[in-house]
Specification:
Butyryl-CoA Dehydrogenase, subunit A, domain 2, alpha+beta, 10 helices
C-alpha cells in the first residue's frame, strides 16, 4: 500500500475540502439548530462527482476509487457530520446497485443518484425489532404477476423523506438468510408512507424517519440481485459502509482536535495560553496520535476494497477503532474548552453529539468485535 496520494486522490480530497469549508461549514450550525436538510446542497455535491466517488464514469460517477471516497468523507465530516452521512448512504446505494443491478437498473437508478436527480439515496434495512439482527425483519414482499407487493415498516432510515431512490429489504420466503431479498424503490411510490422526523441527539441536520409500506407495488424488475440474496447484499454493503463511517469518525475527530488547538492558543489562564500547560498538551498529543492510527486503519480497509481483496475484518477494525477514538477525542475537546465546550457558541458540543452514534450505526462496536473475532479465527483455521 502506497501512502502517497495519487493525483486523482489529491484532486478529490481538495475538491471536497474546498466545498466543505466554503459551502458546508458556514451552514453546519444552522443545519444542526434548525434540523435543516438542504436538498440543493446535495445537487451541488453531485455536480462535483461526490455522490458517486467510486462509481464508473459511464453511470455519472467520478470513478476515483474507495480511497478517494474515504478522503472526501473525512473532509465533509470535518465540516458537517450531518451532510457527510447523507453523502455516505447515497454512495453506498449507488455502489450496491452498480455491483448487483442489471444494466437497465444501473442506467436508470445509479445515474439518478450520481447526478443529483434523486437528491439522495436511502438504505432501508433496519426495523423497529430488527437492528443488529436483520434476520428478525418482518417486512414482506409477495410476487403478484409482474409486481412485488411490499408490506411492513422500517426504522432509522437516513434521508428517507427526501430520497429519490431507496434500497429496501424484505422477506420473500425461504429459510434463514435465504428468505431475504433486496428491492429498488422510487421515492413517492404509492403506498410508501413517510414517518415523523426523529428528534435526535446529534446529526440533527440529517433527516431520519420511519418508513411504512402499505400494499406498495413495485415492478418485478426492481428486484436487486437474485431473490433470496438480500442478506448477502446487505452484509456486502455494510462492509463498505463501515469504511464510510470510519472516515466520518476521523473527520469529526480532526475537527475536534483542530478546534482544541486553536482554542488553547487563544484562551488564557494564569497569565498564559492554556495550550502552554503540559496537561492539555498531553491530551492533544493523544488525540493526534489516535487520529492518525484511525486514519491509517481506514485507508488500509479502503485500499483493500479498491484492490478487490477481502476487507471485511479490516473494515470492522477501522470502524470500531475510529468510532471509539472519535468519541474519546470529542470528549477531550469539550474538556479542553471547559464551560465554553458545553454551549453551542463553540462547535465542539456539536461534535460531541454527532460522534456518539458512530459506535452504534452501520453495526455497533459489539458487532464489530464479533466480526473481527470471527474473521481472525478463520485466518487461524
Amino acid at each position: 500500500m502506497n501512502l502517497e496520494l495519487t493525483e486523482t486522490q489529491t484532486l478529490i480530497r481538495d475538491t471536497a475540502r474546498k466545498f466543505a469549508r466554503e459551502r458546508v461549514a458556514p451552514q453546519a450550525r444552522r443545519f444542526d439548530r434548525e434540523e435543516l436538510f438542504a436538498p440543493e446542497l446535495f445537487k451541488e455535491l453531485a455536480s462535483l462527482g461526490l455522490m458517486g466517488v467510486n462509481i464508473p464514469a459511464q453511470y455519472g460517477g467520478a470513478e476515483a476509487g474507495v480511497v478517494s471516497y474515504s478522503l472526501a468523507m473525512m473532509e465533509m465530516a470535518a465540516a458537517c457530520a450531518s451532510t457527510s452521512v447523507a453523502m455516505a448512504v447515497t454512495n453506498m446505494c449507488a455502489e450496491l446497485i452498480c455491483k448487483f443491478g442489471t444494466e437497465a437498473q444501473r442506467e436508470k437508478y445509479v445515474t439518478r443518484l450520481t447526478s443529483g436527480e434523486a437528491v439522495v439515496g436511502s438504505f432501508a434495512l433496519s426495523e423497529p425489532h430488527a437492528g443488529s439482527d436483520p434476520r428478525a425483519m418482518r417486512t414482506t414482499a409477495v410476487r403478484r404477476g409482474d409486481k412485488w407487493v411490499l408490506n411492513g415498516s422500517k426504522q432509522w432510515i437516513t434521508s428517507g423523506a427526501y430520497a429519490g431512490v431507496m434500497v429496501v429489504w424484505a422477506l420473500t420466503g425461504g429459510q434463514g438468510n435465504k428468505g431475504i431479498s433486496a428491492f429498488i424503490v422510487e421515492g413517492g411510490t404509492k403506498g410508501l408512507l413517510i414517518g415523523k422526523h426523529e428528534d435526535k441527539m446529534g446529526l440533527r441536520g440529517s433527516n431520519t424517519v420511519g418508513l411504512t409500506f402499505e400494499d406498495m407495488e413495485i415492478p418485478a424488475e426492481n428486484l436487486l440481485g437474485k431473490e433470496g440474496d438480500g442478506f448477502k447484499l446487505a452484509m456486502i454493503a455494510l462492509d463498505g459502509g463501515r469504511i464510510g463511517i470510519a472516515s466520518q469518525a476521523c473527520g469529526v475527530a480532526r475537527a475536534a482536535l483542530e478546534a482544541s488547538v486553536q482554542y488553547s492558543k487563544d484562551r488564557k489562564a494564569f497569565g498564559q495560553p492554556i495550550g502552554e500547560f503540559q496537561g492539555l498538551r498531553f491530551m492533544m498529543a493523544n488525540m493526534a496520535t489516535e487520529l492518525q492510527a484511525a486514519e491509517l486503519l481506514t485507508f488500509r480497509a479502503a485500499y483493500l476494497k479498491e484492490e478487490g481483496k477481502p476487507f471485511t475484518r479490516e473494515a470492522s477494525m477501522a470502524k470500531l477503532y475510529a468510532s471509539e477514538m472519535s468519541n474519546r477525542a470529542v470528549d477531550k475537546a469539550v474538556q479542553i474548552h471547559g464551560g465554553y465546550g458545553y454551549i453551542d457558541e463553540f462547535p465542539v458540543e456539536r461534535y460531541f453529539r454527532d460522534a456518539r452514534v458512530q459506535t452504534i450505526y452501520e453495526g455497533t462496536s459489539e458487532v464489530q468485535r464479533l466480526v473481527i473475532a470471527r474473521e481472525t479465527f478463520k485466518l487461524l483455521d
